Every structure is written in structure tokens, then in C-alpha cells.
TrEMBL record:
Organism annotation: Lingula anatina
Family membership noted in the UniProt record: Belongs to the calycin superfamily. Fatty-acid binding protein (FABP) family.
The protein's name in its UniProt record: Fatty acid-binding protein homolog 9
Keyword Ion transport part of the UniProt annotation: no
Keyword Zinc on entry: no
Annotated GO MF terms: lipid binding
PANTHER family assigned: FATTY ACID BINDING PROTEIN
Keywords attached to this entry: Lipid-binding
InterPro entries (UniProt xref): Calycin (IPR012674), Fatty_acid-bd (IPR000463), ILBP (IPR031259), Lipocln_cytosolic_FA-bd_dom (IPR000566)
SUPFAM superfamilies: Lipocalins
Residues of the Lipocalin/cytosolic fatty-acid binding domain: 6-113
Gene name per UniProt: LOC106176897
């Protein structure tokens, strides 16, 4: 999993508006997310992993142990129950909330971090480049 360690700069996102519509995202949150370019960082503290998302005016830190469920919040503040696993060099996160389940896969391909999220049949893809 060491390929995830370090800082990742936002490049692009595809299908975010449709994805947020599927989630039932509030209009004010939708506007904020459409105008946000979140950078990411992964680090490790013993057997705990730390994912930090930097957005203008805020930083969201998520700590987790692989395979162990944990309480989390989405960027728009919605409480969720998450589990992150590692398989075939991909980080897979599943989280459940009132509006359903989201499956998120993150994979490093060369100098890029590719994150793909699914909610129902709607797919959203984020691309980050290694800093």
C-alpha cells in the first residue's frame, strides 16, 4: 500500500453532478463541491492509515485500519459507517448512509491516483497526480 503514501494534487472529476444528484446532495453543498479541487494525502501511523483531504478553508482527516469498520463523515458532513480494505493493490471503501451505499475504489496507476465511486448505477471518477 506504500504506493498511496504522499501528496496527490487534484486534476479532474467526471460525472460529479449526476453522482451528487443520485446521492440527493443539497444545492448549496453541490455548488461548493463543483467549485472545489480537493487535494489528498496518505500517511501511516503504525497500523493506522491517515487520509487527509485538503479543500479551500478546511481539511478533513480520516484515520482507519484496514478491514475494520469505523464512523466517518462525508465532505458534506453526512455521518456514514465505512470500511476500507486492500486487495490487488486497490483501496476499496464501502460506506453506508441514509441515502444508500457508496462503493469507492482508489488505485495508483503510474503517477496518478484514480478514485471511482459508485452509488446505485451512477459512477463518478476523480483523478489526482502525485505531487
Amino acid at each position: 500500500m506504500t504506493q498511496f503514501l504522499g501528496k496527490w494534487n487534484f486534476v479532474s472529476v467526471e460525472n460529479l453532478d449526476v453522482f451528487m444528484d443520485s446521492l440527493g446532495t443539497k444545492p448549496e453543498v453541490r455548488e461548493f463541491m463543483q467549485n472545489t479541487n480537493p487535494d489528498m494525502e496518505y500517511s501511516q501511523e503504525g497500523d493506522e492509515w491517515v487520509m487527509t483531504i485538503h479543500i479551500p478553508g478546511s481539511t478533513k482527516v480520516t484515520k482507519f485500519k484496514l478491514g475494520e469498520p469505523f464512523d466517518n463523515t462525508t465532505l458534506d458532513g453526512m455521518p456514514v459507517k465505512s470500511t476500507v480494505t486492500l486487495k490487488d493493490n486497490k483501496l476499496s471503501e464501502t460506506y453506508s448512509a441514509d441515502n444508500g451505499k457508496v462503493d469507492l475504489t482508489r488505485e495508483v496507476n503510474g503517477n496518478q491516483l484514480i478514485s471511482i465511486a459508485w452509488h446505485n448505477d451512477v459512477k463518478c471518477t476523480w483523478i489526482h497526480n502525485k505531487a
